From TrEMBL:
The active site is at residue 109. GO terms for molecular function: catalytic activity. Pfam families: HIT. InterPro entries: Histidine_triad_CS, Histidine_triad_HIT, HIT-like, HIT-like_sf. A motif (Histidine triad motif) lies at residues 107-111. It comes from Jannaschia pohangensis. This is HIT domain-containing protein.
Amino acid sequence: MPYTYDDQNIFAKILRGEIPNQTVAETDHTLAFADIAPAAPVHVLVIPKGRYVTYDDFHTNASDAEIVDFHRLAARICADKGIAPDGGDGFRAITNAGNHGVQEVPHFHLHLIGGRPLGRMLAKAEG
């Protein structure tokens, strides 16, 4: 079943310039901006400019140029923000998909979070 993209989601509106953002970096295929409710001192959202709903949708349907651009920009942001392990103390990269993944915005996005100890991502399963 194909993914249905909602042109009225907040990231689509940001990409169209209808909602302002604090841009961190931008390329032909990718936009990165500060999260409006940061979970840590560094919290950047990286989004493709194309109409992709989830991680798997993006990696199945995006062009090679879009995929490479997205990941290279994310890596550059980690280095620029001082959270990459070779110059900082590390980071977490999170993407949520669907209901069980608690995806809030139906536009593929990657959270880059760092600048403090983040603790466990999930509690260990019992049993």
